[in-house]
């Protein structure tokens, strides 16, 4: 952290010490909470060098995030009313909300772990610092690349125009385009993995990085997923860095499954009159096929961008995780700024506006997930990092779901890779994905934040319970979630300690929606 003043020139030693202390306290508090929650012995964690290294890295990187938040607060808070006023006043688009999530995951202690990045790379490639990363187009000998690109999938006109222009330029340089396919690689991955792993292919020009055609891109909430305005598309890249608890690669199976499943669910939404639900579809992808072990490290996925909202100043697309992060304008959660806008527009009290917000939000997300589960046997992993909510004048209007890696579904006529374990014949598996991602990691997190501002959590749980009951009355599922005193969620710390032990990866928690159970606040 010695060159910290290079990036934060005005930071004082006192501010740096405070940020370091706050980061350490936040990470250690999360460790204690999860250890208690998962019934882990803290001394076991303290003697595990690997875990301690991950935690130390998370603390170091969270310190940087806190410094960025403080710098933004000092610079912008005197000039704007709330974060929406800031976005409009600074001429930003809604990508900003992907880059606003200061603390990352709401309760994972390794929330900021990025093993493999030094502090300067953390600042360059992490979203909250709002820097530009470079995507390098790489020409690859055709026989070395497997393209996954369904003919019915439409890639943006901007991407097609860029591709045609590049082909014309390369043809003028007497490069035979027909010999090559294109891969898009994160600049870090090209330098730190590809150039070291495949020097012969580079020397033989079977891999040709086009550095002069590098594409500027903006890191999104998942830092290796990048917004590319030039393509009017999103590019998900492989980066061989451990972030949170996993190395962030892009497997061939995830490319294939994402394209097939996102298209299938988008079609179900369209044909089934899911009026408030949409899919941010995966469109195409490719990978280097010469080494099965490394195919997931030299790969990419192209995803569609969300519709622009810049022409509708009172409408925004917020990645749902941004709702439970603090705004550097007001130092309140962005969720509260939404509700305050709703209060102002409709002249409502805080409690009335909050209840209205939560009722509509719950209606929207349950349509997109629980109705789909009951009607189609497909359970989406729609936690806050995988979902984007459309907010108009403070009120939720529509949800977009992305990323199909954690989906579970009954077998159906969709061309997916069965080796990934997505297909199940157990309704309980579908319900477990729903309860973990949609209830515990999404709706309950909204209630947890609202409680901090005086909103009675039992009202929030009542709203969710009654909407679930209506679906259950209509569809009569084989397991009624409202009659289950507990449900299963992932054990985040145990998953780090016992990496291969499936039995250790889940914890059963009290279900605050249980009809006969006491209402409790769920805070991880």
From TrEMBL:
InterPro entries: Aerobactin_biosyn_IucA/IucC_N (IPR007310), IucA/IucC-like_C (IPR022770), LucA/IucC-like (IPR037455)
GO biological process: siderophore biosynthetic process
A Pfam family annotated for this UniProt entry: FhuF
An MF annotation (GO) of this entry: acid-amino acid ligase activity
Domain Aerobactin siderophore biosynthesis IucA/IucC-like C-terminal: 357-502
Pathway: Siderophore biosynthesis
Domain Aerobactin siderophore biosynthesis IucA/IucC N-terminal, first and last residues per copy: 95-324
Family from the record: Belongs to the IucA/IucC family.
Protein name per its UniProtKB record: Siderophore biosynthesis protein, IucA/IucC family
Lineage: Bacteria, Bacillati, Bacillota, Bacilli, Bacillales
């Amino acid at each position: 952290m010695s060159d910290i003043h290079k990036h934060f020139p005005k930071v004082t030693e006192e501010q740096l010490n405070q940020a370091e202390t706050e980061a350490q306290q936040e990470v250690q508090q999360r460790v204690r909470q999860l250890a208690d929650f998962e019934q882990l012995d803290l001394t076991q964690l303290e003697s595990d060098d690997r875990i301690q290294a991950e935690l130390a890295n998370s603390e170091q990187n969270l310190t940087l995030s806190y410094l960025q938040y403080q710098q933004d607060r000092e610079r912008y808070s005197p000039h704007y009313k709330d974060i929406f006023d800031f976005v409009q006043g600074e001429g930003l688009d809604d990508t900003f909300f992907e880059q606003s999530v200061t603390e990352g995951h709401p309760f994972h202690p390794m929330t900021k772990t990025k093993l493999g990045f030094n502090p300067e790379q953390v600042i360059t490639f992490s979203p909250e610092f709002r820097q530009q990363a470079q995507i390098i187009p790489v020409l690859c000998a055709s026989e070395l690349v497997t393209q996954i690109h369904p003919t019915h999938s439409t890639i943006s006109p901007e991407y097609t125009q860029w591709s045609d222009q590049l082909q014309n330029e390369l043809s003028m340089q007497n490069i035979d385009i027909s010999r090559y396919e294109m891969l898009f690689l994160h600049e870090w991955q090209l330098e730190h993995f590809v150039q070291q792993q495949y020097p012969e292919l580079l020397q033989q020009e079977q891999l040709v990085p086009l550095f002069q055609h590098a594409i500027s891109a903006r890191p999104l909430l998942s830092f290796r997923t990048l917004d590319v305005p030039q393509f009017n598309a999103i590019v998900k890249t492989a980066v061989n860095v451990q972030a949170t608890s996993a190395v962030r690669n892009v497997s061939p199976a995830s490319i294939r499954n994402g394209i097939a499943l996102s298209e299938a669910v988008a079609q179900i939404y369209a044909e089934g009159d899911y009026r408030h639900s949409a899919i941010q579809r995966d469109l195409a992808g490719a990978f280097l096929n010469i080494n099965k072990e490394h195919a997931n490290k030299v790969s990419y996925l192209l995803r569609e961008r969300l519709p622009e909202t810049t022409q509708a100043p009172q409408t925004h697309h917020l990645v749902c995780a941004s709702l439970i992060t603090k705004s550097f304008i007001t130092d309140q959660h962005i969720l509260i700024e939404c509700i305050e806008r709703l209060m102002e527009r409709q002249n409502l009290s805080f409690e009335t506006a909050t209840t209205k917000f939560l009722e509509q939000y719950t209606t929207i997300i349950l349509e997109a997930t629980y109705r789909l589960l009951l009607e189609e046997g497909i359970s989406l992993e729609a936690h806050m990092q995988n979902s984007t909510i459309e907010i108009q004048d403070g009120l939720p209007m529509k949800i977009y779901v992305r990323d199909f890696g954690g989906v579970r579904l009954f077998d159906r006529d969709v061309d997916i890779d069965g080796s990934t374990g997505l297909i199940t014949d157990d309704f309980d598996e579908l319900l477990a994905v729903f309860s973990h991602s949609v209830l515990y990691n999404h709706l309950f997190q909204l209630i947890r934040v609202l409680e901090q501002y005086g909103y009675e959590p039992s009202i929030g749980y009542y709203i969710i319970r009654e909407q679930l009951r209506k679906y259950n009355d209509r569809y009569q599922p084989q397991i009624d979630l409202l009659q289950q005193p507990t449900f299963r969620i992932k054990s985040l710390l145990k998953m780090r300690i016992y990496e291969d032990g499936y039995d250790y990866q889940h914890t059963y928690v009290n279900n605050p929606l249980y009809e006969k159970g006491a209402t409790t606040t769920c805070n991880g």
